[in-house]
Amino acid sequence: MTFMPTISFVKYAAPKKGLAIVLAGEGGALGDAAAACDPGKVLARAFSVSEFSGKSGSVVDVLAPEGSSLDRLVAIGTGKAEDLNEYAWLKLGGTIAAQLRKATEVAVVADIAGVAITPADVARLAAGVVLRSYGFDKYKTRKDEANGKDTPSKPAKISIHCAEPSAAKKAFADLQAVADGVMLARDLVNEPANVLGPVEFAARAKELEKLGVKVEVLTEKEMKKLGMGALLGVAQGSVRPPRLVVMQWNGGKAKARPVAFVGKGVVFDSGGVSIKPASGMEDMKGDMGGAAAVTGLMHALAARKAKVNAIGIIGCVENMVDGNAQRPGDIVTSMSGQTIEVLNTDAEGRLVLADALWYCNDRFQPKFMIDLATLTGAIMVALGQHHAGLFSNDDELAANLFAAGQTSQERVWRMPVGPEYDKMIDSKNADMKNIGGRHGGAITAAQFLKRFVKDTPWAHLDIAGTAMGTQANEINQSWGSGFGVRLLDQLVRDHYEG
Length: 498
Known about the structure:
Helix content: 25-40%
Radius of gyration: 24 Å
Number of strands: 17
Distance between the termini: 41 Å
Largest sheet: 8 strands, mixed
Number of helices: 15
């Protein structure tokens, strides 16, 4: 199984055993504390032989270094000092985690020549180690397959040597809360659909009560009473009943209006009667990536005691083929009273969100609403897998989200909405239809959602390309990325706390 390392913070001291990892600045320069780990000066020769220049992420690994009792001495390049932003420190932490291999006793010396490293920098380094160390292997029963040849047999103990260990520890506690939220979201996305149905998802969200989150779970009976015909229409083909989960974190002033986050929680999407092709359908266990992100965000906000009032709402359903399943051509009535002609049962996420958004707005009257959904393949055609699509009716909210994406590197790119797209989803038989034709599929999906938010500032994040199956990077080696947790936590930190 995958072991998460334990991390502590200590004053600078030359490590005597195990693995020591030092940071080398531009040109391979070592700070005094880093140089003290290399009494035999083996790194200078290793740098020369390997043409190591201190480029960010580059690595030199020396086994049994001469003049030392260490097992290994590893130097990691940090690049130019001016490029060491918040995300760069996270990436450095991830690069450190990648070098651990079988080591169980590890010293990381957070010292770079000519760079003043703050406790916050050290904390981000540690958070990067944690995020990179995540793995999902709970269903592996053979240790040789689960662990791999370079995986330790027990958790690594990592001591990070720094100038202000107490301050670094305090800063890390804050980031650990966010990292735990990311890993919760990854766990939810990675779970197979036979294990994580709507009821089970709601139960996982209910566990947030341990952190002080108020959690309500609405059943099918309660949703029928509220008139959520759009959401219930998606769920009717599955033997697994739907759930709407309402999470409230009240960390702000008593009468302050909350900020709200709404997630699409389709635990498995067969496409319904408009069935998907068999190839790749197994990935549709991740079609609840938006709900996973909202749940992970609520964990992060509560665990770090964020000074904000926040609402998280997730609509959990399964979209299946069945004799009772919704048919193309059916007309449903949403909670808003607006009617929807369902021309394609595989355009189901917007139906779930329509009722969830209306309910959120009607009950809580939030400052803004942000929904997250693995909504369309069209957004991947437009943006690939490096940006989520951002659609909004509010320029300030959109700008804040874009800035948070640049800082966190969970990046978003704004796409258009506007009345000219309404004609594409107008229906002859109902108030609207749930698809708009071949062109602009991500845009017409957002335009559909816009009809359920009134004048409340709103943003829609289409995370179909970023929530799952993305390219591995320094801080994520998992199929489920947890995309959205760090982005939205950053947004709240920068603009909506206090």
